[in-house]
TrEMBL record:
Protein name: Two-component system sensor histidine kinase YesM
Gene3D superfamilies in UniProt: HAMP domain in histidine kinase, Histidine kinase-like ATPase, C-terminal domain, PAS domain
Cellular compartments annotated: Cell membrane
GO molecular function: kinase activity
Major localization listed first in the record, in broad terms: membrane
Organism: Paenibacillus pabuli
Domain HAMP, first and last residues per copy: 301-353
Taxonomic superkingdom: Bacteria
Transmembrane feature ranges: 7-28, 280-300
Topology relative to the membrane: Multi-pass membrane protein
Assigned keywords, A-Z: Cell membrane, Kinase, Membrane, Phosphoprotein, Transferase, Transmembrane, Transmembrane helix
Amino acid sequence: MFARLNVFTKITLLFVMLLILVLFLYTYSNRESVRVIEHEIQNNTMNHLSTFADSVESNIYQLSLYGISIGQDSSIQEYQRPDYKDIPYERVKVGSAILEKINLYNAASKWHSTITLYFPRLQKVISTDYYAYIPYRKDEFSKPLSKSWAYTHEQFEWYTTDPTTAMDTPGKSRLITKISFPVHHLIAMLDQNKLNNKGDPFMFHPDLGLISNSSANDTLNAIQSKLKATELSGKGGFTATLDHTEYYVSYIQSASLGWYYVDYVPMQQILGPITNSRNLFYASIAVLIAMSVVVLYVLYRSVQLPLLQLVKGTNRLSTGDFSVRLHYTSRNEFSLLFARFNIMAQRIQELIENVYEEQLRRREATLKQLQSQINPHFLYNCLFYIKNMARMKNEKAVVAMALNLGEYYRYITRSENDQATIKEELTMVKNYLEIQALRLERMHFTMDVPDDMLHKTLPRLTLQPIVENAIIHGIEPRTEDGHITITGHHTDELSTITVEDSGRGMTENQMQELTNNLHKPLDGSMGCGTWNVHQRLSFLYGERAGLSYEHGSRGGVKVSITWYNNINE
């Protein structure tokens, strides 16, 4: 199938296939690059968030250890001695020592926290919060304490008891330790993480809201809505599109606080160079396609169309149409080639026409030579007829035969003009038919040609060969009476004379063979008369002029002679 296409189509298809292959390979490579970079972005964001979460968890774990270790301190045990009830000074002295140790704990910690010690049995409170008086209230510890960090009043709180089994009944414990730190510690770490990693981290709780860094933007509200609508696990990430911008959101749940550490990055900001490169490539491809279309169009106009015209011209020339000429307005190699082709076609046409005309002239000369010679058989039959009629004293038949025979031979031997009017042709044919009617008493003829056709011209001796064939091949072989009808009709452009006989007729194959012989070169097996008539008409009036055969309405053959009026008028 591909081999049947022309060169231009092959080039176009190969170019399109190459372009599709390049687009496919680049698109696949671009998608793989984007996928790898997105994966790296997700891993990098999660790693930064994990580092941040580990740092926060480390500080919280350190605070939790402080709460547990404080309860084991000997000063705490000494502070609860029963004999200090009568010695308040000693208890105050031990309380000061306890407070000093707690401050040492705070000084060693990265976060400044508030540590408060409740002594249910003594109903006393020791706290590092110097600016607040914290009384001991029995109802504050009537309910079980939370075993995890709780968020309240912009700070996180955590309780532990001594013994630790007293978390459900804190009022019966020896010591309740409360450690709290403000939210601004987390905000400071969020700010530091944002400064180092160029993200926008924050903390989120489905029920309590979010804790953001100090320079957070309005995107957090939309991220918060997405987080609330998403079923969150312990660790993970997802993509979200906000205001036509795609973000990757990663989160890690804090084991201590129960909140989620969240960070997000705009994917387009990182993938921008790749996207710009992709857009530039597609723009280059679009420009390349436009230029290719222009090149293909110019190639089609400058090469393909001239080649198609040249191929069509050679095909028409090979079929015998030597009148073909190629027209090309551009001035390039094809214009020279077309000019040479037109010269070649013109010379071939002139040679063919000269040869063809010479053949017609030779056939005309042969026909005139035959016409100038007296047909012995036809002439002897006419003379014997005159002789017999003279013996029978039939003077009228002798006169009629002699006059018709003389007029007939005078017309066919006259050669000063190749053209004759229809009236002259019909007069000669009438003489010929009357001669045949005298010889064959069973033959009759009818002529019906309009008067306005009689002045039209056609080649001499056009009708006589047709009428002669109708008598010899159609009427004479039969024993019944025969009839020949000659009719004519015309239009503004076309004239037609029809010769129809009531003879034995022809089969369809015989008629088709006779029609085919009209268009073949003359050979010894073909009749000269009808072939010569058809060739002369075609040569003088064009390819559509000539003879045509069909079955007659009386069982014989109907021959139509057609030619154009505007040639010789």
